[in-house]
Amino acid sequence: METRLRIAVQSKGRLYDETMELLGEAGIKLTAVKRTLLVPSRNFPVELLFLRDDDIPDSVASGIADIGIVGLNEVLEKDKNVEILKELGFSRCHLSLAIPKRIDYTGLEWFNNRKIATSYPVILSKFLKEKGINADIHVITGSVEIAPGIGLADAIFDIVSSGSTLVSNNLTEVENVLDSQAVLISSGKKKLIEEKQAILDELLFRFDAVKAADGKKYILMNVPREKLDNVLSVLPGIKSPTILPLANNDWCSIHTVIEEKRFWEIIGRLRAEGAEGILALDIEKMIL
Ligand code: PRT
Ligand code: ZN
User: Fold this and answer.
1) Domain check: are 22 and 84 in the same one?
2) Exposed (0-12), middle (13-18) or buried (19+): which is 203, by Cβ within 10 Å?
3) Domain range spanning residue 161?
4) Rounded to whole angstroms, what are the CA distances from 66 to 6, 14, 53, 56, 192?
5) 196 with 234, same domain?
6) Which residues line ligand 1 (CB under 6 A)?
7) How far apart are CA 221 and CA 227, in angstroms?
8) Which residue's alpha carbon is at the smallest distance from atom 8 of ligand 1?
9) Count of structural domains, the chain
């Protein structure tokens, strides 16, 4: 039987869409559209094991899956023997302490002898111990943010993304304890067999190519030769930009890659320096 690298991924939830998008951009196609528990790829030697995110760290630590894609918060909370291979840059959020808005916060000591509601007791107790704070941790699994309002706790420790959940519950973030994002994990103790390691290496290479292209644009433009130096001084290319001759000797064409976030600023400066016929294209992959 063909060797397949087994990847544990979230079956549904906040990680699902971007996990599938990343795998898709890495060229991995699945055999079944329907999500059964274990789905092989039809063009790459991997298979996906669909689980709840809570079960992913343990499935990888114990070797049921070879690698997994899960939030860093879940990895640290479950505290299993796993190794973080790569930060994947999506599902970004932070784990924070938040208190009722009306309270005048005086610093971490405020939490001494207070009751904090959370679904992340391991991360929280580690943090409080490190800081020498003695608080009472109250574990609840859902809707942590309502705990202070109904008198169940003085404060909460929970995931914050946009912050709107806190606002609508009259809470305010006072300490950011952990910045989290989706990460790729492998077992901390079990080494992969050679064939699986080779599949993983190819996968990591493809993820890097997808990530490198993220937020970048390929641009090409025509420039009068006499303005070439001015235009080049505006362009922060990957290495040096490509300069091609045009049928009209007084003009040339420049191709390069720019950061999307600086797109309008750079385009404005290029036009001011005499660039014309500017084209911008999306980049799918970039091998550096
Ligand atoms: O069913 P399963 O157990 O697999 O999923 P789940 O319900 O446990 O997790 P899910 O799908 O909600 O989240 C999976 C992972 O996404 C989390 O472990 C985080 O790593 C990441 N993530 C990113 C988030 C958020 N952003 C997020 N905003 N997880 C949860 N939230 C919740 C948070 O709990 C709070 O209630 O959204 C609310 C806050 O959001 P804002 O935007 O109002 O601040
Ligand atoms: Zn979960």
Assistant:
1) yes
2) buried
3) 93-180
4) 5, 22, 15, 11, 7
5) no
6) 10, 13-15, 52-54, 71, 73-74, 91, 93, 158-165, 180
7) 12
8) 53
9) 3
Question: What residue owns the CA closest to ligand 1's atom 35?
Answer: 159
Q: Which ligand 1 atom is at minimum distance from the Cα of 91? A: 23
List the pLDDT tens digit at each of the 288 positions of the chain: 789 999 999 999 999 999 999 999 999 998 876 667 999 999 999 999 999 999 999 999 999 999 999 999 999 999 999 999 999 999 999 999 999 999 999 999 999 999 999 999 999 999 999 999 999 999 999 999 999 999 999 999 999 999 999 999 999 999 999 999 999 999 998 889 999 999 999 999 999 999 989 889 999 999 999 999 999 988 876 567 899 999 999 999 999 999 988 899 999 999 999 999 999 999 989 887
Task: Among the bound ligands, name the one nearest to the CA of residue 15.
Answer: 1
Count of positions (residues) in the chain: 288
| Alpha-carbon torsion, ordered 198, 199, 203, 204, to 10 deg | -30
- The pTM of the full predicted model, rounded to 2 decimals, is 0.90
Q: Residue 61: inside a domain, yes or no?
A: yes
**End residue of a domain, out of 213, 232, 256:** 213
Q: Which atom of ligand 1 is nearest to the CA of 16?
A: 11
CA of 114 to the centre of ligand 1 (A): 25
Question: Which ligand has its closest atom nearest to the C-alpha of 146?
Answer: 1
